[in-house]
Design a protein that fits this description.
The complex is a heterodimer of chains A (558) and B (204). With 558 residues, chain A is mainly alpha-helical. Helix content of chain A is 66%, strand content 1%. The two termini of chain A are 22 Å apart. Chain B is an all-alpha fold and 204 residues long. Helix content of chain B is 75%, strand content 0%. In chain B, helix 2 runs antiparallel to helix 5 and helix 2 runs parallel beside helix 6. Chain B starts with a helix and ends with a helix. The chains are: A mainly alpha (558), B mainly alpha (204). Chains A and B meet through helix 2, helix 8, helix 9, helix 10 and strand 1 of A and helix 1, helix 2 and helix 5 of B.
């Protein structure tokens, strides 16, 4: 057997002894699964904080004249809310969190390529998060999550803290990206060809280069903003020859790919959940996989569609508009493939499935308003209004966050060995779904009527719908509260799940829940796609995984 | 042999790795260099954007940079690229003594380049009163980009010094010398960046 032929330092050397002691095991852990869970917990803590800020915003907007917080405080609140939700919640949850937790298991690896780097990426993240929230102590940034100069140049000291914090999150993301690319390229189990990889892995594979490349571009912009603010070195200040529009170019060159960082892994989650609960092979496997890559690539060529009102030359605007329309094509391919996966499937309405189906619907709505916004004449009309706010929340909450919840209900058994409570889960879904739509649908027509975003007061004629939105958002917050209660209750009292509660076919479900620290006793060999529900599992070498036999290294460990 | 080929043969193949092999590190390091390259590219974009947005270049009141001195300084840096190349080649072929000499030569040339840059900065700041913060977008882009590059050279020199000490202590063997490969790649990367910076600041 090939195993016997491997010299000393081979297999035995590769399975490290199980770390002992709480700190090594759960705090400064090198294990990708623990690091993934650390990411998820930390990001949810930040989500609570940023969510409270969101409720401050909605409470302020209950009345046309505001009055809940001072206008300056309101500016700080929405700026930090946006920054925290993007950089401290959605991106870490989908890449560092679910990415770390799931994809090494799905490619049959024992860990990511650089476990130390992985640990370092994680530990930078909470530090950066605390820095971002601490900016409230010295006057938080007030120019929104985009921090356009010259307002950001005049902002309080916290704006520099903001830049430093986001820079650090970026360093963490870049390291995660490098780690994931190398892991997917080099550490797949034998037989796991690119066209046999589960679609969640494809999602991460399309995202990781974006993390690596786009984030560095943002780092440059943040560094320039920081040194301009601290040392007076002119980059963006027009009175000294700098250009505020240049910030917009540098920022959106990152931040447009960043919206794909926030959605491609969620596409991956949905592509796992839908076939599992439809009991049908995913429709158009290769189309879904390659369209992710197409989206990632084209995502670098559309940034200026955020800048149609910034005085860009018309001959530049039109190509950006057209390429943006073109991105709708690979995204549409996915939507059709998912719908076709559901078609005549034997659908199991678990909570994870509800969130996945909800994702498909809500993301489609968000995508369509995105196509509206790509059209220059329409964009000129609604730019800087609540239409934009509605659009971004449909893709980031209705899309990414619904994907996160689908992933939580789907993979929670793999993390903890217990199922989340389905009754509470369904309550969570329906309240969240209703609250979400109630909060964000009216923003579209308020925006078209001209209600500007990022302003602490509004015209009294908009009062009814703003109150409607605010009360809906309280419902949404209550739904998320149910989710946290569900998680905390189920960790101790949930039904034991066994290795594979869903009858899913990807590799991570063929090993115990939660998996052993070494993941696989023997690295399996892969013979085909994981989605052919009528066929036997396309894996060999997994016979011992669910038995009590010791891992091979236990005999020959150091 | 590709992973796919192993699977198709149907035998167990090599058990996957927990340790970081040379191959993994090399790929990770190359990706790091790519993202570092993006960092420079962004600032280069900013420089070119600002340069083309205003009143001609160099802006009124600022003299053109001295090409001749920077050209000689560039020759020093490119020379260090050559010596680094020979250092790695000699190490691969087992000529340890020559490897050490070439490595030391690289460090000396790298430090020489930094000295030249310090002289140039000194001349600009105190001779022509061009500063980072006080000379508009010219000072901002020139000092930020060349300063970033200089920092990279400085860290490279530090790293190569560590390599010398490690090599003297016998850390690297004929089969295990990723640290030297990484140093060489990094040094060439810094050279290539300088080619671009020299062209866009001194030549055009």
């Amino acid at each position: 057997m090939a195993v016997a032929a491997i010299p000393a330092g081979g297999i035995a050397g590769h399975i490290h002894p199980e770390p002992q002691g709480f700190v090594r095991r759960y705090v400064f852990s090198l294990d990708h699964k623990i690091i993934g869970i650390q990411y998820i917990i930390t990001a949810f803590v930040f989500m609570v904080l940023a969510g409270l800020l969101a409720e401050v915003i909605r409470t302020q907007l209950l009345n046309a004249n505001g009055g809940f917080v001072a206008p300056d405080t309101y500016n700080e609140v929405y700026s930090v809310h946006g920054s925290a939700m993007v950089w401290l919640v959605i991106i870490p949850l989908l890449t560092g969190g679910f990415g770390n937790l799931v994809f090494p298991l799905q490619i049959g690896a024992r860990d990511v390529a650089f476990p130390w780097l992985n640990m370092l990426s994680f530990w930078i993240f909470p530090v950066a998060g605390l820095m971002l929230f601490s900016s409230f102590l010295m006057g938080a940034p007030t120019a929104g999550w985009m921090e356009y100069p010259p307002v950001s140049l005049q902002g309080a000291a916290g704006t520099s803290m903001w830049a430093a914090a986001i820079f650090l999150v970026g360093v963490s993301s870049t390291m995660t990206g490098i780690n994931f690319v190398v892991t997917i390229l080099k550490m797949r189990a034998p037989g796991m060809t690119f066209t046999r990889m589960p679609l969640f892995v494809w999602g991460q594979f399309a995202t990781a280069p974006l993390l690596m490349i786009a984030t560095t571009a943002l780092a440059a912009a943040l560094a320039a903003l920081f040194i301009e603010r601290q040392f007076g070195v002119p980059f963006f200040d027009p009175t000294k020859g700098g250009s505020p529009v240049m910030w917009q170019h540098m920022f959106w060159f990152y931040s447009h790919p960043a919206v794909y960082i926030m959605i491609l892994p969620a596409f991956g989650i949905i592509s796992e959940v839908l076939p599992t609960f439809s009991r049908k092979p995913i429709f158009g496997y290769k189309l879904i996989a390659f369209s992710s890559m197409a989206i990632a690539l084209a995502g670098f060529m559309v940034w200026a569609h955020h800048m149609f009102t910034s005085g860009l030359a018309p001959f530049l605007q039109v190509p950006f508009m057209i390429i943006t329309f073109v991105i709708g094509v690979p995204t549409g391919i996915k939507i059709f493939s998912w719908t076709a996966t559901l078609w005549r499937g034997k659908i199991h309405y678990t909570t994870a499935m509800l969130f996945a189906i909800g994702f498909v619907g809500l993301f489609t709505l968000g995508g369509i308003t995105g196509i509206f916004l790509a059209a220059i004449p329409f964009d000129l009309h609604v730019h800087g209004t609540y239409f934009i706010v509605g659009h971004i929340h449909y893709v980031l909450v209705g899309g990414s966050l619904m994907g996160v919840f689908a992933g939580m209900y789907y993979w929670f058994p793999k993390m903890s060995g217990r199922l989340l409570n389905e009754t509470l889960g369904k309550l969570h879904f329906w309240l969240f779904f209703i609250g979400f739509n109630g909060t964000f649908i009216p923003m579209h027509w308020l925006g078209m009527l001209g209600m500007p975003r990022e302003v602490a007061t509004y015209d009294p004629q908009f009062t009814f719908w703003n109150r409607f939105e605010s009360f809906s958002s309280y419902l949404m917050t209550f739904a998320i509260l149910i989710f946290f209660v569900n998680v905390l209750w189920s960790i101790r009292n949930g039904k034991r799940s066994g290795p594979n509660p869903w009858g899913a076919r990807t590799l991570e479900w063929q090993i115990p829940s939660p998996p052993n620290y070494y993941n696989f006793k023997h690295i399996p060999t892969i013979y085909g796609l994981p989605y052919d529900f009528s066929q036997p599992l396309p894996y060999k070498g997994l016979e011992d995984e669910l038995t009590d036999s010791p891992p091979p290294a236990a005999a020959g460990a150091h | 042999m590709s992973v796919a080929a192993i699977g198709a043969d149907g035998h167990d193949g090599v058990d996957q790795l927990y340790v970081e092999t040379r191959e993994l590190r090399l790929q990770g390091f190359l990706l790091f260099l790519i993202s570092d390259c993006v960092l420079f590219s962004s600032f280069i974009f900013a420089y070119l954007y600002l340069r083309n947005s205003g009143q001609g270049w160099p802006p009124p009141g600022i003299q053109r940079l001295d090409v001749a001195f920077a050209a000689w300084n560039s020759v020093v840096l490119f020379g260090s690229g050559a010596t680094m190349h020979y250092a790695l080649e000699n190490f691969k072929h087992g000529n340890f003594i020559r490897y050490m000499w070439f490595l030391l030569a690289t460090i000396v040339l790298g430090a020489g380049f930094l000295g030249g840059q310090a002289y140039e900065y000194n001349h600009l700041i105190f001779g022509e009163h061009v500063t980072w913060w006080g000379s508009g977008i010219f000072g901002a882009s020139f000092f930020t980009l060349t300063g970033m590059h200089g920092m990279h050279v400085f860290f490279g020199v530090c790293y190569l010094t560590v390599l010398v000490l490690q090599s003297a202590a016998g850390v690297y063997t004929k089969g295990k010398y990723f640290g030297i490969t990484a140093g060489t790649l990094y040094w060439h990367f810094v050279d290539v960046i300088w080619v671009v910076l020299f062209s866009i600041f001194y030549l055009i």
